[in-house]
Automatic annotation (TrEMBL):
Species: Streptomyces liliifuscus
Protein name: arginine--tRNA ligase
Catalytic activity annotation: tRNA(Arg) + L-arginine + ATP = L-arginyl-tRNA(Arg) + AMP + diphosphate
Domain Arginyl tRNA synthetase N-terminal: 4-92
Keywords of this entry: ATP-binding, Ligase, Nucleotide-binding
Main EC class the enzyme belongs to: ligase
Listed InterPro entries: Arg-tRNA-ligase, Arg-tRNA-synth_N, Arg-tRNA-synth_N_sf, DALR_anticod-bd, tRNAsynth_Ia_anticodon-bd
Top-level division of the source organism's lineage: Bacteria
DALR anticodon binding domain ranges (all copies): 234-349
GO molecular function terms noted in the UniProt entry: arginine-tRNA ligase activity; ATP binding
Organism lineage: Bacteria, Bacillati, Actinomycetota, Actinomycetes, Kitasatosporales
Length: 349
């Protein structure tokens, strides 16, 4: 069961409790599931009981006790424990990591995207400033990944070099026409220096990686090919996942989602959190949250890359195929996230 499927399962449990008259509260549109925090257990945890406590007029622990049997009886759920103030800790009926990896590989670049349009209409309006233009375009892509219909507009005609070098485009410029139901003014702290000399990928990263309220650093550090450069780590990690697939093919085996042995927790957690990261980045109009998550994912795959392929005379096993599938899933997330930021994900680096 994937995190998205588990979230739907949690919502069905809430709906069952409401329909049975056990709980008087509105069913939320989304139930957050994530790896358990300190003191937790199982494969995933949800705070839905804490979320429903106030509208239900009951303590979170009591809400959790009501939801527990409905959730424990769901297909694919092996057990449910309650910890802390009312967290529901869910143990899946085997194959949680395998299902996650299979889901990432199946959906490819659309992993983390919502399946249906939400009907939300958003207009992103920004001043004639390069960081605002790049940010608005990245936010538009992230919002579209979450089902919104988005239109971008600039206060004045954009600098043509922004499109030529940075790939920036807007739908309209000048005074906005008929207002959208939701108009958002995109006004990050402007870039003091010209990012154009950095080229497309490094310039976009330099503008998008810092939070919108932070000053971007437009320096040649973004071009350095070493581990101190977060952009290099992300792109290098993606290239390494592709190299692992090529090297595995040379050894005569391919990937297959399965039980990944060894300490792969950080990477599995990063993959599971990616859809939630996209949703949060869309909600807060914050591409920097996506950029930082890509760095986390890159560091996780770089930390285990040397355990993926057989060593020496070792023969490829099911564990190697499972670890290769996990690495390929990480590469898929890195490529998809970079694409949303408008940055290339090279096969070789």
């Amino acid at each position: 069961m994937t995190p998205v499927e588990l979230s739907r399962t949690v919502l069905r449990a809430v709906r069952c409790a409401v329909d049975a008259g056990e709980l008087a509260a509105p069913v939320p549109e989304w139930a957050q599931v994530a790896p358990p925090g300190p003191g937790g257990r199982g494969d995933y945890a949800t705070n839905v009981a804490l979320q429903l406590a106030r509208p239900a007029g009951r303590p979170p622990q009591e809400v959790a006790e009501i939801l527990r049997p409905h959730l424990a009886g769901a297909e694919g759920v092996a057990g449910v424990d309650i910890t802390g103030p009312g967290f529901l800790n869910i143990t899946l009926d085997g194959g949680g990591e395998q299902a996650l990896v299979a889901e990432v590989l199946r959906r490819g670049a659309r992993y983390g995207f919502v399946d249906e349009p939400t009907g939300d209409l958003v207009q992103l309006h920004h001043p004639r400033e390069v960081r605002a233009a790049v940010t608005a375009q990245a936010v538009a892509r992230i919002l579209r990944s979450q089902g919104a219909l988005v239109r971008t507009s600039c206060e004045d005609e954009p600098d043509p070099t922004w499109e030529a070098v940075l790939g920036v485009s807007v739908d309209a410029h000048g005074r906005p026409g008929a207002p959208a139901p939701l108009k958002v003014n995109v006004r990050p702290v402007p870039a003091v220096q010209d990012p154009i000399p950095l080229g497309r990928d490094a310039a976009r990263w330099a503008l998008l990686h810092p939070a919108s309220h932070d000053h971007p650093r437009i320096t040649a550090e973004h071009l350095v090919q070493r581990e101190t450069n977060p952009l290099f780590r992300v792109r290098y990690a993606h290239a390494r996942t592709r190299a692992l697939s090529r090297n595995a093919a040379d050894l005569g085996f391919t990937s297959a989602p399965g039980d990944v042995q060894g300490d792969m927790t950080h990477l599995v957690d990063a993959l599971a959190a990616y859809p939630r990261t996209l949703a949060t980045a869309a909600r807060h109009r914050a591409p920097d949250r996506l950029a930082r998550h890509l760095v986390t994912t890159a560091d996780a795959i770089l930390g285990i890359q040397h355990t993926v392929l057989p060593l020496g005379d070792e023969k490829p096993s099911a564990a190697h195929r499972a670890r290769l599938a996990l690495a390929e899933a990480a590469g898929t997330v890195l490529a998809g996230g970079l694409s949303l930021l408008g940055i290339d994900a090279p096969e070789h680096l």
